[in-house]
Each structure stands twice: as structure tokens, then as C-alpha cells.
């Protein structure tokens, strides 16, 4: 570290940000994400009738039905597609898919930490063949390639660790017997999607849906349901009951989960789905997140100290913006300063190991708060430029 950069770091640590510049809500985390006050009020209002009651009884089952019907409307589900949910987050769904959706071999696009994890689960499964893995450097987009050797293609719609989005479309040349499994954990409910291009569009609710973890949800196609039922009846294939997709399908049709769910998570999720629908649905959420992420990308383009990590504008996420900070400036000093002033969770993904800011713009993040964050960052950089 040079003397100049040391001096700037010291200046950052000593700086005070004027209160009037700060966002009304300083939570910009990539997950768990900010929860709206109205969601918390809804949680309080049902505390005596839903929380602490049996999940096999009408109040909680009605809540699950509300979530399932709301998602069906939000994603405009075609006939035969179903909303299925189960205990555990998206990490659990990777294992559910390894047991109940991938028949023999899968193809994985790996472009960051989370896409790598699903590929590793498939590679470690003793009943599956070694998966085809197509890699790209972090910040870049690999392309799925039709292969007669696989029965499932898997990739993330949005790679949270790097801020890359991949289009959701069946690979050219993919056959009828090949499923498309898309990890939508950090972007479901925030970006438009043609659900017919997928067979399992799965996610957890702690990102765009502004809830808590511990639950997975998936929109399943008729082909995915048929695959799950067939594999579930295969006596030579051992499937743990907790990871049984057929069990999750059966329970979801009864508006329940196999084991006791976190009911508060369901309440927050249902409220957020209803709110997004009331604002204009997925088209509204898509426009809002494009606007807020676009503000950050435009800011980066006018600041010589800041560079978008994802070089291709078409590949940049509309919900997780990753920005490289010039090496002469300690990004951790910036994030620490902002955290001390109530602007939190804009640190980079830890395993990426870059001098970087990572800022989430899920639907609950107001345009005004993003504008204020940019003003704060301008103030911080300008105030310490001559240190």
C-alpha cells in the first residue's frame, strides 16, 4: 500500500457522512434482503392466529395456498405447471434434484460460487455419471450446449456471487426428454421470465421476496413432475424421505410441507407476493430493478475510480451490481464507513476476493434510496480524493 492510499484509508476512517445524504433505508444486502415495514406489520397482525399453530390446520394451509396461487399468477403459469415447496433452502433443492430430477447425467454452467455448488453435488452423487461442466471466468457467461449425453441442463438465472445474469431459454437442439433446471434464488420475482423455457424454476424466499430462508420453492413443468414420479417409483434408486420430490409434490397439493415450516417465513413471503402483484406484477418488478441497477451502472461509468466487474453490459445482473474499486482505495474502508452510518451489506462476496462493492436492488429497494446511496458514495470519494 502506497503512502497516498494509506492516507486515503485514514481519511475514510475519519470521515463523517452528513445525515441528510443517507438513504431512508440503508439495507442493500444480496440476501437476506430488506423486509418492508408492511410485511412486519402483517406478521404482527397474524401473530395470534397463525404463528404457533399447527401447520396441518386451515390457517397455515390457507397461507400456503395463498403463496402457491400468488406465484401461479405472478409467473403466469401455463396449464400443467405447479408450484411446489419444501423444507430447506435452494441448497436442499440441489440435493432434491440430484435424487429426483437428474436421471443419469446433467450439464452444468459454472460461473461462480453457487453454480459450482450444484455441479459439485451432481459430481458427488454415486448413482449419477460425472456431469458435463461448462465453465466461464467469474463475471462472464458460459453457454449451454445441446448434448445427447445428458438428461438435464442446469444453470443460475442470476449468479449472486458475481452479479451475472444468464438468459432463460432451452438450449438449441435440446430434446424433449431433457429437463432445464434454473436456479432463480436471487432473481425470482424481480425479473421477467418465460417459465415455459424451464422445467424447474426454483428459488428461496430471502432475496426478491424479502422473506427469510429455510424454504425452497419451485415451479415444475409436467415433464419434471413425470420425471420425479417415475424416479420416485424406481425401487433401485434410494431417495431420502426429506429430499423426496414426489413427497414435496404430494404435500404441496395439500397446501403443506413434509415437516413443520417456518410459518413467519410464509407470512412475509405471501405479503411480498401480494405487494408485487398489486404494483403491476413481474413486469413492474422487472422495470424497477432494471432502473435501480441501471442507476448504479451509470454511476460507475462516470467515476474513474469505479469499474463494473461484469464487462458485458448485456450480462450484468439487474438485482446484484458488482463494482470494482480502484486498488488505490480500500473498499473495505468504504463499506466499514457506510456500515457505521447505517448503510449495510454492500461488501463483496467473500470468496471472490476482490476490492469491490456489491449492491442489491431487489424490488423492495426504493429508487430514492439508490439515488441517496450514489450521493453518499460520491461524497465519500470526493471528500477523500485529496487525502
Automatic annotation (TrEMBL):
<keyword id="KW-0032">Aminotransferase</keyword>
<dbReference type="GO" id="GO:0004760">
    <property type="term" value="F:L-serine-pyruvate transaminase activity"/>
</dbReference>
<dbReference type="GO" id="GO:0008615">
    <property type="term" value="P:pyridoxine biosynthetic process"/>
</dbReference>
<dbReference type="GO" id="GO:0019265">
    <property type="term" value="P:glycine biosynthetic process, by transamination of glyoxylate"/>
</dbReference>
<keyword id="KW-0808">Transferase</keyword>
<comment type="pathway">
    <text>Amino-acid biosynthesis; L-serine biosynthesis; L-serine from 3-phospho-D-glycerate: step 2/3.</text>
</comment>
<dbReference type="InterPro" id="IPR015421">
    <property type="entry name" value="PyrdxlP-dep_Trfase_major"/>
</dbReference>
<keyword id="KW-0663">Pyridoxal phosphate</keyword>
<keyword id="KW-0028">Amino-acid biosynthesis</keyword>
<dbReference type="GO" id="GO:0008453">
    <property type="term" value="F:alanine-glyoxylate transaminase activity"/>
</dbReference>
<keyword id="KW-0963">Cytoplasm</keyword>
<dbReference type="InterPro" id="IPR022278">
    <property type="entry name" value="Pser_aminoTfrase"/>
</dbReference>
<dbReference type="Pfam" id="PF00266">
    <property type="entry name" value="Aminotran_5"/>
</dbReference>
<comment type="function">
    <text>Catalyzes the reversible conversion of 3-phosphohydroxypyruvate to phosphoserine and of 3-hydroxy-2-oxo-4-phosphonooxybutanoate to phosphohydroxythreonine.</text>
</comment>
<dbReference type="GO" id="GO:0004648">
    <property type="term" value="F:O-phospho-L-serine:2-oxoglutarate aminotransferase activity"/>
</dbReference>
<comment type="similarity">
    <text>Belongs to the class-V pyridoxal-phosphate-dependent aminotransferase family. SerC subfamily.</text>
</comment>
<keyword id="KW-0664">Pyridoxine biosynthesis</keyword>
<feature type="domain" description="Aminotransferase class V">
    <location>
        <begin position="51"/>
        <end position="343"/>
    </location>
</feature>
<keyword id="KW-0718">Serine biosynthesis</keyword>
<dbReference type="InterPro" id="IPR015424">
    <property type="entry name" value="PyrdxlP-dep_Trfase"/>
</dbReference>
<dbReference type="InterPro" id="IPR000192">
    <property type="entry name" value="Aminotrans_V_dom"/>
</dbReference>
<dbReference type="InterPro" id="IPR015422">
    <property type="entry name" value="PyrdxlP-dep_Trfase_small"/>
</dbReference>
<protein>
    <recommendedName>
        <fullName>phosphoserine transaminase</fullName>
        <ecNumber>2.6.1.52</ecNumber>
    </recommendedName>
</protein>
<dbReference type="InterPro" id="IPR006272">
    <property type="entry name" value="Pser_aminoTfrase_mycobac"/>
</dbReference>
<dbReference type="GO" id="GO:0006564">
    <property type="term" value="P:L-serine biosynthetic process"/>
</dbReference>
